[in-house]
Amino acid sequence: MSGGSRTARAIIIGNELLTGKIADKNLTTLATVLRRLGVVLERAVVIPDVAEVIVREVREASVASTWVFTSGGVGPTHDDLTIAAVASAFDEEVIVSSELESLIRLAYGDKLREGHLLMARVPRGARLVKSEDIPWPATLMRNVWVLPGVPEIFELKMKLVEEVVGAGVPFVSLAVLTTLDEGNIKPMLDRVVLDHPDVDVGSYPRWTDPKIRTKLTFDGRDRARCEAARQAFVALLPDGAMAGLEG
Amino acid sequence: MSGGSRTARAIIIGNELLTGKIADKNLTTLATVLRRLGVVLERAVVIPDVAEVIVREVREASVASTWVFTSGGVGPTHDDLTIAAVASAFDEEVIVSSELESLIRLAYGDKLREGHLLMARVPRGARLVKSEDIPWPATLMRNVWVLPGVPEIFELKMKLVEEVVGAGVPFVSLAVLTTLDEGNIKPMLDRVVLDHPDVDVGSYPRWTDPKIRTKLTFDGRDRARCEAARQAFVALLPDGAMAGLEG
Fold it and tell me: Which of A114, A166, B10, B192 gives 20 to 30 Å between its CA and that of B47?
């Protein structure tokens, strides 16, 4: 992964992920969007609903990366600790956003309970990012996006993320599918990797596919260089070993 | 999550996970097995194929937890750095295991290439864990299980993990499904949480389910206490709000 770029870290919060109850979907959603924006996602952590762990991770990540994305822990129940933890990471208090409170009152009408208003809490100094399409704002505290864990809502908020983070030079990803296994491919691949240091070459075995044994990927910001690396690799493959191209 | 228990950390390695190409499946597999064994999975990190990052994570995790599980980066290609990184984390060299070499020679026969033999590398001092059912061993370096990223193989190796890690007091997980949202539930839930500090209560909203709005979970090592917490919660629910029990 290249240096000098805009970078990001993900902090995925929830006991349910570490106890096997639910498989996270948000990392892939986030990674795909950041890739398109040209932001390097350096690392993700999956941590439990423990306030001091969240605080420490947010503090570390916000210094280390251009952007930080938290997922989960933003509801009104006792296990929702992210808003308070993000506030605490920046030595700020939690306040009630009158803008969020109005939205919540409007949404719930006469079904409103006190518990619902807990979702109006934000770290003091947080920005509420919204657009005409997406009236419910996303909370952005300094460089930390505080996003909900529910995958459908997390995905909706990506549009707001895209608008604020903005497009850079996106990453290109090209692929070759081959009938050879990694042990066979290795000498050809090593040569291509050596000749194309600016292309990130990945090799992914497929265990259950009867025909395609390995997928090779050629990623970078310069499409011509990715193409060149892929072509160099294809040229080294023996007859019949190329099973398809992607990207 | 309770203290004083056997603990674990997961280190999930691979650029493909941080670029959105592939969604990890191994964390949920591992978490489910550890839960059954009564081991607390404290944390998982998803990191790129960068040697020094892997070394640092392995070193940290192996000191902090009873067990560490790495996933990915054990093939023969240039982006497979985990074996060398785990060796380096313990200041050991990489050696060729004659046991693994024999297995590889047997498996590939006259299709063997030099590249295949790279999969015989292990950190010096690693233990090869196997059973009669699973002839291909798993690599265990001190307290670090070095597991492959391919989900089908990762899952196979869990049987070896279970045998070595051994059963402790497993966690029980009970659940209630309700028609109420989290804002409505909160006052009832807070009371149950307060009265059952030894039960880990989780609240999970469902966004797209038209009937069930929230799933509540009651986890712990003592089934009777989990039952008590769940019953206390159900007793507080208004008529018609209980939509099902699980576990």
Answer: A166
